[in-house]
């Protein structure tokens, strides 16, 4: 499996990731773009959420991080496309929603919409542990009104929703109004077909890193569904937010370990080719020591990412705190190692001819993605005091 995914990462993901990085966000998703080739080739690998769910928890916990690291080695942004696609079917499987499992095959393009224009980090603080004493989270931007067996969604999600510009299904986390109004503390998790009447999308977002990953707003105008589409009702909302973050943060840890490894390997190779002072630069003590520290950080990041993935796939309740520790470690590692790699490349590292500056930009975005690392640390710290709250 590792060989198969590595070969895919090398032959498909890397060249397509580099090509998409140079395109405008509109060009990335236009018909004929290599973005679509990537999705077609990815399908052929047959590594959907169900493939992993059919394995034993231990096999899954060992194999999944290896697959995600290889993908991250290929391209960070393209790996997140794969990760985001997996979240709607995964939530249906975890909550055992038979209707949704059948309604949305796990081969569909998926997205996860939780962030709102006025609620970025707030959306991670359901229990309001990080709430400022003089703060007011105010009104939600997106509300699902539940009456009888009908759910009606109105409002919008932020431009940060990964895959939104092309997704076929969305796992939506939003506030719920069950008769007493809506606030940012009570919500629901719903699978929304992206072709449902009333769903529209914003323009794909232009950003410095992970440019291969299309992102954009989702708007909901009286989108009416039956309650069959609910993954988790208000009583299960906190649990759903906990579980999806535990999964997403663990995936992120593996992907960004892979990106860090890619930066390290490119620098290691370059240090053998580039000569200064009459010898390959790796012969200079400072360069060798720099490369050793990069290697040390990658190994530590992988060890933590794999340990957390194995624990979370086999434990009755996954550990969010551990997933956050792994996500923060891996994304910080990817950023530091990519920056060190750029230093090894010298001036060449700054040019678009080499891949290092792209990995650095991609890695920078990962420290904000799926929750700013600062907020994750704050929430994980509070989680150590009150493990039952999120
Ligand atoms: C590449 C990428 C992919 C993403 N994918 C998705 C996706 O698929 N779906 C989705 O819904 N969202 C997604 N996001 C959104 C992401 O989760 C948010 O960007 C993130 O949660 C931060 O929200 P914000 O950008 O609004 O920053 P803000 O919340 O506005 O934070 C700004 C700064 O203030 C700090 N801050 C905020 N609140 C506090 C507090 N209470 N205490 C201390 N400091 C605080 C933060 O740490 C940060 O430094 C993605 C983001 C990126 C960059």
TrEMBL record:
Biological source species: Oceanobacter antarcticus
Keywords noted in UniProt: FAD, Flavoprotein, Oxidoreductase
InterPro entries: Acyl-CoA_DH_CS, Acyl-CoA_Oxase/DH_mid-dom, Acyl-CoA_Oxase/DH_mid-dom_sf, AcylCo_DH-like_C, AcylCo_DH/oxidase_C, AcylCoA_DH/oxidase_NM_dom_sf
Entry-linked CDD domains: ACAD (cd00567)
Family in the record: Belongs to the acyl-CoA dehydrogenase family.
Alphabetical list of Pfam families matching this protein: Acyl-CoA_dh_1, Acyl-CoA_dh_M
PANTHER family: ACYL-COA DEHYDROGENASE (PTHR43884), ISOVALERYL-COA DEHYDROGENASE, MITOCHONDRIAL-RELATED (PTHR43884:SF12)
Tree of life domain: Bacteria
Cofactor list: FAD
Protein name (Swiss-Prot/TrEMBL): Acyl-CoA dehydrogenase
Keyword Flavoprotein: yes
Start and end residues of each Acyl-CoA dehydrogenase/oxidase C-terminal domain: 252-377
UniProt domain Acyl-CoA oxidase/dehydrogenase middle: residue ranges: 111-223
